[in-house]
Amino acid sequence: MEPAREQQLLGHDVEVSKEQEEDAPEGHQEEVAPEGQLEEQANEVKNSVEPEESKEKGDSREELEESGVQEKLEEPQEPGDLEENPILPTESPKTEESIEKDLEKEKPDEDPEELPTNVSQEKQAEDLKPEEDTTKPEVVDNPEELASQEDSGEEKPEESKEEKDKGPTELSEESPEDSSSKETEEIEELTESLKIEESQGENQEKIATAEATEDLSEIPKEESTEILEESPKNIENNKNREDIETELSEESSKTIEEEKNLKNSSLEVTEELKKDLKLEENLENTSSEIQRELPEESLEEPEEKNLEKELEENQETTKAEQLKSPPPEEDLPNEQVTLFLRQLVHQLWPELGSSPELRLERASAKGDNYLGVVWRLQVAAGRRSLVVKLPPQNRVRRKQFFARPCFLRETAAYEEFLPLAERFQEEWSVPLEDRFRQHAHCFGTRSDEPNECIVLEDLSATGYLLHNRFQDLSVEQVRLVIRSYAKLHAVSLAAKKQWPDRVKPLQVLVDIFEQRRDDYALGVYFENLKGSALSSLLSPKDDGVYRSRLEAYFSRGSYFDLLLPLVSGSNCEPFAVICHGDCWNNNILYRVGASGQVEDVRLIDWQLMRYASPVTDLAYFLFTCTSRSFRQEHLLGILEDYYLELGLHLERLGEKVDELMPRRAFEEQVKNKAAVGLLLAMMVLPIVTMQGQDVPDLQAISERIEAGATTDLHGAGFLGAGNETTFRQRMREVILDCVDFDYI
């Protein structure tokens, strides 16, 4: 029951009781129980319901019992304060049964507590007034509200069953003035007691609320001096209090546990941050060397490593530049290639165990290779090494750079032609030092798409290195290359005559450029090369004759129309041979001896291997790898060296040079086919003259072309501020030599 409503009801009871006392006959006047008996009974109730209550509360309650009056509080009280204002029991002339019957008749239609909130307290008090008994002038408090609350199971402060059964409250014989004064003092004492309780915090308020509920539920019945046992409702209230205390304890424990977890989490985060900082510090301190280690079942990712290799006191070579950023994932061997490599290593070196340590590192610097990716595979901490060639894995780049046809062509070179050349020379017992063996030994290949790979011997392990393409080649270097080509071509001419069936499959090879004849974007790019070549010439006053000759040559047809007849073998029979095909500096390795002299060479990258005139290899090499001054002085002598070596090697193979390549036929081949050097120089010199850091993004070029764009050397990024001057100079020299030697 709300405190304000209780005050109104109590005031109403006091007024009615006074009227009854005045109007009732003497025989019906109610007697006040002896003061000592009431005090004793109240103390027993207090001790049985709440023995742990403070002494101050007990004293306040005893003073209220002595007054025999239910006070009206001047200010609204908290629900817990109701325990400080119990209604003391009085003797009633009515029996318990008659009171219960009256209560049944007086039961209201609805619970006053459920009245709408906009109803005033005065209206609620009027509704809660009990009906007067017409036969007996007594006032009965309204217990129906308590009964309704008990039935609804609400757990708010409510009056007990004993309070429902009580009779009308007996007033004390004290005067109103004394009673009012005493009430004021008692209220002040109660207020002080409440302040002490409120200071105990939120948890103590919950416990106090539960205790107040218990207090209200234990009030003695009328006409009885014995203390009733706790009702089931009291037991339930006790349980509620215990549950609240348990809940508070659990919440406190959870809060402490959460704080501990938060602290632990904070420590863990701090540790993780420390680890991250340490890892970043380690990464910053590591070498920029690109190197990836292979796990037992798959190739391990390369770690960053610089592959700047210092050439061994060779003035004609320089340090190879290397990528400084980790390679893209698509440049690494895929799972199938990884498995293939592990199996191959085990077959080659079983003594190293089934799972030796494998590491990958870049085998070529940026700008040294355009048609694929070259790795050096370090085995067992460098005790063995191999070179692994892979095509690009990106679909667009594979298409635009013709990756698969080029890899199939190189695979055919290592799997078919070069082994055939070796067997053919063995057949004739050619001494090892005289054989054509200027190529890398191949240990294995795969040609299934997209798992193409070629595994070669690591020539750098035996001292073979690239020559710095920005430095001139020596005469001896050029002669070694030319003699190597002479041996290669001699094997082709002799084997074509002696083993025609074995050579036949190689004779029908379709040139890579022929396969791309209908590529519109490539055709436009090649046509734009003509303009770049013409722009390299000086003014008409200085280079007028050369310009006229070049323009006349270009007028014969498109770039493809000029190039394809020069790289075809069908129009130069019976002198066509198997050619290396890609004869620029980056595809030739040199070995320099301790004395500084060049001892031998190796031809690598057979991706453009073709069946054509032997002059295609010679002209390609001489016009892209030597200078005008060198050619003016040594060209004819170099061609003579070639022809002599060709004859010597044919004799080793049981053939005569005059029958297979007469001098006149050779000279005609040079005259008719040497222009290929000009066309291939137009294509290759922009790359030859470009520094590694200026190499364009081949993937970006591929995507632009795939989208339908056409471009030229500048648009593709192969010609720019870094190399344009050098390109123009060298291109002009090639044009002048081709005109001077009457090749165009």
TrEMBL record:
Q: Could you tell me which residues belong to the region Disordered?
A: 1-332
Q: Does the UniProt entry include the keyword Nucleus?
A: no
Q: By what name is this protein known?
A: CHK kinase-like domain-containing protein
Skewed-composition ranges (Acidic residues): 141-153
Query: Which stretches are tagged as biased composition: Basic and acidic residues?
Result: 12-31, 47-61, 93-108, 123-139, 154-168, 218-243, 251-262, 271-281
Domain of life, source organism? Eukaryota
Q: Which GO terms describe its molecular function?
A: transferase activity
Transmembrane domains' residue ranges: none
Positions of the CHK kinase-like domain: 454-652
User: Any idea which UniProt keywords this protein has?
Assistant: Transferase
Name the Gene3D superfamilies for this protein: 3.90.1200.10
